Structures are given as structure tokens and as C-alpha cells.
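This section describes the prediction task in plain terms. A model, or a person checking by hand, is given the sequence of a single protein chain and must write out its three-dimensional structure as a string of C-alpha cells. No templates, partner chains or ligands are provided. The sample shown here is typical of the held-out split.
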Amino acid sequence: MSVLCDWEIKALCEAGMIEGYSDDLINPASLDVRLGGHLMIEVADTKDFVNVDISHRTEKNPYRLMPGEFCLAETEEIFTSLTHLALSSSLNQAEPGRGMRICLQAGSILDLAFPKALD
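The expected answer:
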């Protein structure tokens, strides 16, 4: 397996691999994605999830995910036509010097089968 470089990622994006991408999200060997406006929060001791709209949240009025809570999140970008690629993902806080450091590896937890599934 090889890692794609920026111009290869850009070519795939322009060919329709990702809807809603922006050139400023392309890095030397990766593509940043933006958190969408909805979360699904797991309800403790059940198999249920609660849909949470975070589209109106701001830095001054954030949604706080509590310790031990699990959530599914959507991205603003929609990935399509990925039958020939393997993806790896990680969640990194945009400003790591502020607040708690977040870095979760979730390479096997990407589900690209249901576009806009959280709507």
C-alpha cells in the first residue's frame, strides 16, 4: 500500500471522489475533513442513540462530549467512488494547544456506505 501525495489527492477530488471538498483542506499526503452539523450520541446501557444538532454551536457555546460518551459524527464532505482505495483516519483537535488534546485513531471505523446517514 502506498500513500497518495497532494496532487494525486487533488486529482481524485476533482474527479468526484469527494463532494464538498476545498483545495485548502489538501495537505502534502492527506486531506482534512470538517465536522458536520449532526452527532449521534450513544445512550448508556441501551442500544439507542440520540440525534444531536450541533450546527448552531460555536467556540463560545460548544457541545461538550462527556468522558465515556460515544458518538458517531458526520463530515461536511461526502466520500464516493472509493472501491480502489484504503483509507485511514484520525481525529485531531484543530488547535492542540487549547484545552484537552484529542487524537483518536479510527481507521477501521469509517463507514462510507451511507451518505448523509445522520440527517
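For orientation: The radius of gyration is 16 Å.
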